[in-house]
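Regression check, nicotinamide-adenine-dinucleotide case 344:
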Amino acid sequence: VVYCNNPTVGLQAIVALHDTTLGPALGGVRMWPYDDEGAALDDVLRLSRGMTYKNALAGLDHGGGKAVIVGDPAHDRTEMRMRCFGRFLDSLGGRYITAEDVGMTAADMECILQETPWVTGTHEYRGGSGDPSPFTAQGTLAGIRACLRERFGHTGIGEVAYAVQGAGHVGLELIRRLRDHDATVYVSDVDPACVQRAVDEFGCHAVEGGAILDTDAEVFAPCALGGVINADTLPRLRCEIVAGAANNQLADTAAGDELHRRGIVYAPDYAINAGGVMNVSLELSGYNAERAHAMTERIEGTVSAILERARREGIPTWLAADRLAEARIAERAALRASAPGTSA
Ligand code: NAD
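Current build output:
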C-alpha cells in the first residue's frame, strides 16, 4: 500500500498492489469523496483484490492493483493534482499501471500521462484505445452465448428475450448488439432520456424502474449498479440467466449461492465484463483494435469453463470463477519456481 500525499497541491491518494504474480498490477484509479482515510483504504484494498481475479481470468499477464484519489470529482479535479498523482505512479517504476475508473475522465488520464508512461485509457490520438464500452458490451454478448448454451443448448441470441437494467455506455452498446440479432429487449434506466433513446433508436420496450426485475425475459442483464442481486430482489427474478456488465452484481456470496439454488445461470460479473480491461491492456504493447476484438471474444470460452466447472463440482458459479482465477495464479507461480527464465 502506497500513500501519495502532497499538501502543496492538495493530493491525497492511495495505491494498493494486491498481487503481482502474473505481472505488473493493472487497474483503474477512482476519485471519490471518502469520509476518511480508513474508508478510502478499505475501498482500494477491496478493489485491488477484485482486479487480481479479473485480470487472472481474463488471461492477462497482469496482477491486481487499484488506486483511489480522495476528493469530490465535481470540485477537486485540478491539473496539478493529477500530475502529482502521475509523479507518484512514476516512482513505482511500472509495478502499477493505472486506467480510468469512477470519477475520472480521459482528460485526467492525459494529465497523468504528462508525468508517467504507466497509464492506459488515453485518447486514441495519443495511441490510447478510447472508449472501452463497446468492447465490454462485445464481451458481455460473448458471455451470454455461453450461458444460452448452458441453459438452452443453443447460442441463438435472437431466440430469447432480455431485460437490460441501465442503458448507459455499456448497456446501450449491448442493446445495439442484441437488436442486431432481432432479440426482444426490455429496458429500464433512472434517466428517462436513456430509455427513450433505446426505444427510439433500437425499438426496445420501456419498463418502469424496478419492474425490470419482474420482467418475463429469459435473460436479465444488469448494466447499471452493483449489489442488484440481493435478498430483496432474488424472489422477484423471473429470468433463467443473469448475465450483464455491471460490477459487483452480487450483494454478497449468499446471493450467488441463492442464484445457484434457484437454478439460475449466473455469469460472474468480473469474468463477463473483462472486455474493457482486455482492451486497455493492449495499449501497453501497441494498441490494435482488431486484436482487442479477438481477445474479447475469448470471454465466451472463459464463461463456458466457469459454468462447466460449477456443474461438475456442484458449486455456485461465483465460486467456480474464483477457483479458476486462483488456479491460474498458483500455476504461474509454480512455473516460475520450477523453470527459471528471464521473464518476471
Ligand atoms: P454509465 O454511467 O454510462 O451507465 C450506467 C447507466 O445506469 C446510466 O444510464 C444510469 O442512469 C443507469 N442507472 C443508474 N442507476 C440505475 C437503476 N437503479 N436502474 C436503472 N438504471 C440505472 O456506466 P457504464 O460505463 O455503462 O457502466 C455500467 C456498469 O458496467 C457499471 O457497473 C460499470 O462499473 C460496469 N463496467 C463498465 C465497463 C465499461 O467499459 N464502461 C467495464 C466494466 C464494467
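Comparison notes: DSSP finds twelve helices and twelve strands in the chain. The pocket of nicotinamide-adenine-dinucleotide is lined by residues 132-133, 136, 165-171, 188-191, 194, 223-225, 245-247, 273, 276 (CB under 6 Å). No diff flagged against the previous build.
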